[in-house]
Amino acid sequence: MSNTLLSAKNLTKYFPQKVAWPKDPDAPLATRIWHNLSSQNAFVRAVDGVSLDIISGETLGLVGESGCGKSTLGRTLLRLLDPNSGSIHFDGTDITKLKQSELRPIRRHMQIIFQDPYASLNPRMTVGDAIAEGLQIFGLVSSDAEKKKRVSELLKKVGLAEDAASRYPHEFSGGQRQRVGIARALAVKPKLIVCDEPVSALDVSIQAQVINLLQDLQKSEELTYLFISHDLNVVRHICDRVAVMYLGKIVEIASTSELYENPNHPYTQALLSALPAINPKEKRERIVLQGDVPSAMNPPSGCAFHPRCPVKDKPKACFEQVPELRKSDSGGLKACHL
Ligand code: SF4
Fold first, then answer.
1. Looking at ligand 1, which atom is closest to the CA of residue 303?
2. What total of structural domains would you count in the chain?
3. Which of 105, 146, 277, 325 has its CA 20 to 30 A from that of 96?
């Protein structure tokens, strides 16, 4: 697609894991050999063959249960984590294997906002210095006066007073600190911002303010967002399209209206069944998934969702073949053999 800003193909990110040493000091040789072999082959498959496009100017939501790999995917797309395989193209450039020095000029255009802005702000740095850091790193200001002016503009843009520049992060509330995090990301005039659970730690009333701010900035600064969240109501409000993730894989992608009105994948149907219907006359059956999410170290064969899938008469392929993302009835994509 010509206006694709970021495109990932078959992206994987595995984390090697040490298997616990057998507690018994007199463990037989076979157990020790098994331990050695397992240690070499044990990986958490946090991102497991993800392909997705982010279109310029859109907000793409990324949802799924905790631990499904959403944040790892967000960080891998920005090359904050190196993928094990697959490719990432950003704004027409293949950034998959670029060295850090080669990535530097591109980094400016790809920023991230974290769930806990306090953890990402240096407590010994004034808010003004924290916002100006990117301006200096990328040589976007040539004098102290210009830096000061730019920091004031950014503070105003995110709804903070000018005197905030000389204060420290601990002097601000959670919502204000998130505004500082947004100003910091905005400073370098990015094209894409990965918003990683940006309002999850905030009170509901503050959440709405920060979301409205993100929406206003998207228009005025021509931004594209990848919006990672487990809050399906917030995602419905802010996103143009939504990707649903389960155990390291995308299982469904569709426009927000299609996905919420006519979810195609059994996992999406279960997730959305917990939401109250917009039309009170509409009857919605709650689908309660049985069991826990399986370990990403040893995912089930075939469709990774098959042990919890509520579809009674599953095709045999569910147990044996990994379903590919294909066109769904509602015009999006889904990974399901049905
Ligand atoms: Fe359920 Fe089979 Fe579809 Fe997986 S592929 S979601 S197990 S019906």
1. 4
2. 1
3. 325
